[in-house]
Amino acid sequence: MAFTICFTIFLLLLVSLYLALTTRKTTKNLPHGSLGLPLIGQTLSFLRAMQTNTVEQWLQERTRRYGPISKLSLFGTPTVFLHGQRANRFIFTCDGDMLSNQQPPSVRRICGERNMTELIGDDHKRVRGALASFLKPEMLKQYVGKMDMKRSEGILRCIGMEIKRSW
User: Fold this and answer.
1) What is d(CA 96, CA 104) in angstroms, rounded to the nearest whole number?
2) Closest CA relative to residue 21, chosen from 32, 9, 13
3) CA-to-CA distance for 139 and 49, rounded, in angstroms?
4) Torsion angle of alpha carbons 71, 74, 79, 82, nearest 10°?
5) Is the pLDDT assigned to residue 166 strictly greater than 60?
6) d(Cα 74, Cα 76) in Å, to the nearest integer?
7) Which CA distances in Å does 85 have to 24, 91, 100?
8) Where are the beta strands (DSSP E) in the chain?
């Protein structure tokens, strides 16, 4: 009887070891980092950092611990964290074949399926080019001047003074 129990336990250990070795997922192409607890991940520590206004320190600590590229889990979604100038250059210059942005379903519901963060390829380049021309320093100076004029008109109107236009 004892022999049968020992043999069964040995057989179960052997089968579990075989399954562990053969079904092991490769992490060779994944960045360093921890996904944390299932579904929770690093969400609680990230929210705590947001609440105490220490997000910058939270990001710096993560960069110090795992490097400029790491994996984490936020709001139940596996996420890649990229930090630094080289990472920004990579993100903004690569095409949709190498990198694609996937927002969580909640963000897609709020912002819409065709928001700028969801666009890829030629659509993204076209919208980014339009925004870049809109946000040039010369254009921003022009917009700020117009906004300042409107603000001044509103203040003068509130105190009852006559508005003199110079144009």
Assistant:
1) 18
2) 13
3) 36
4) -70
5) no
6) 5
7) 35, 10, 19
8) 69-74, 77-82
The one-letter code for the residue type at 63 is: T
pTM for the model stands at: 0.46
Residues 88 and 86: their CA atoms lie apart, in Å, by 5
The two three-digit tokens of residue 145, written as one number = 């001047």
Please choose, from the candidates 97, 99, 96, the residue with its C-alpha nearest in 3D space to the C-alpha of residue 82.
Answer: 99
Closest CA to 127 of 111, 114, 113: 114
Q: What is the pLDDT of residues 1-31, one digit of tens each?
A: 677 887 788 777 777 767 666 655 555 677 7
Instruction: List the structure tokens of 136.
Output: 């040039």
Using alpha carbons, select from 39, 41, 92, 35 the residue that is nearest to residue 66: 35
> Is 65 within 8 Å of 72 (Cβ atoms)?
no
